[in-house]
Amino acid sequence: MFGALKRTLLPLLGAAAVLGLSASVDAKLINKADLHAKQAEAAARIRANLPRATGARVSTGVKNITFTNPRASEFYVDGTTIPEVDWDVGPSWSGLLPISSDPNETRQLFFWFFPPGPQGSLDDLIFWTNGGPGCSSLEGLLQENGPFQWSYGQAHPTQNEFSWTNLSSILFVEQPVGTGFSLGKPNITNEDELAAQLVGFMQQFLDVFQELQGKKLYLTGESIAHEGAQYAGMYVPYIANYIYEHPQALNLSLTGFWVSDPVLGWDVVQEQIPAVDFVHKYENVFSFNETFMAHLDSVAERCGYAGYVEKHVTFPPKGLLPLPGKSVEADPGCDVWDEIFEAALAVNPAFNIYRIFDTWPILWDVLGFPGSFFQTQSPIYFDREDVKRAIHAPVNVTWSECSNINVFTRGGDRSLPPAFTVLPNVIEKSERAVIVHGLADFILIAEGARIVIQNMTWNGQQGFQTPIEEDSFIVDGMGALGTTHTERGLTYFEVALSGHMVPQFSPRAAFQIMEYLMGFRETP
């Protein structure tokens, strides 16, 4: 047998040599120098298209803001003294402020404020919160849109050339009470109470940092999930609505808002209905066997998920979109999301619901979370005593990215999802509003956000009237990177290759979206 095989292969190999095919194989090899040169060229092309961040990689300067209230000096952070950061970040201000002017107030929120970089605007103020409920906004600062970053897998902090300080000043707030370094006993039961406490904090903040009064305010947030909930999609619309409904409460001009990968509607809509279609879209990532895929298809058919999008998500909508069953979470026997999650972990123990492309090994994370499961890292960066002292945080508080206590009391948040309540109002009252979704996010699925939008009425009409075009989101220096669609004051973005934390996983795209929200570019 082997002799026959040898007689067959030798002539073929000889022919390959004659035709020069061996040379073509060698030509496909690439050495490290060439590879790094191509990567550097691509990175340079992206940087060349950052008009408001020119020189961000080499410059750590900031625009000067002088605060005249003597109390401001109590919160000053020397940019040369932040532990592990080996360059001068520039001045910033951080610490605790109460949520009211009551001299006996015990509830305080922790904040960290950064002025704009050299290209940033002095006329604007970005507010950022993470979700949870109870997850720290310092995650956004350190791993998404702050001036320095320490993402998982990084050995040390690096400068963030896509920092939103290249657009304007930015205020990170750990809220509500019970989150991060914030102090006091939580007592809220709904989003309106949360918004009132946050606005109370902002009043105290603006009293100390008076020079920020009168600026245009942009509320931004992302729904990092904690114990099955995803909350900045709740926080931001309700805070915005409170500010619009109480126009004298803050000396700021609320101009627009951003929510990314947000909870907007029911769990069954944003997780269950699109889950099996999501797996089919990324079959090579999940790598499930045919038997399990057939099982998922069967459950989707029986539970009313199969064909839902094709039948009901039309442009324009034909009417209100129905629930697939009786539950707003999942009918008995219809929880395909959890089945998929458990099966994905069996195939890939490093499966990450926040970015499905992650594989083994699980990267070291200086914050220890987020991910599909907690990791025990030592030490957690913001729980280090030297870090706490540098940023005026309470040394006696054990910091964790997501709180171990309930920040909503007496049974949890009683507010309805914002698409049914305040979201239409805040879209109508904002100059621009953006909803952003990473397409590689499994904790909340982009197709579910589309369903919510098509079921929502704002500015006199239900949903988008015309279809969302594929490859319509063109990122400068990169090309098509998802979709975007604008109607009646709302712009929706889907970002390809990005997981749940869009500023972390696709920072150039996130930066461009913020440019659009803030009016620094006319089109998305």
TrEMBL record:
Annotated GO biological process: proteolysis
Record's keyword terms, sorted: Carboxypeptidase, Glycoprotein, Hydrolase, Protease, Signal
GO molecular function annotations of the record: serine-type carboxypeptidase activity
Top-level taxon: Eukaryota
InterPro entries: AB_hydrolase_fold (IPR029058), Peptidase_S10 (IPR001563)
Signal sequence region: 1-27
Gene3D superfamilies xrefs: alpha/beta hydrolase
PANTHER family in the record: CARBOXYPEPTIDASE (PTHR11802:SF479), SERINE PROTEASE FAMILY S10 SERINE CARBOXYPEPTIDASE (PTHR11802)
Entry similarity comment: Belongs to the peptidase S10 family.
Name assigned to this protein: Serine carboxypeptidase
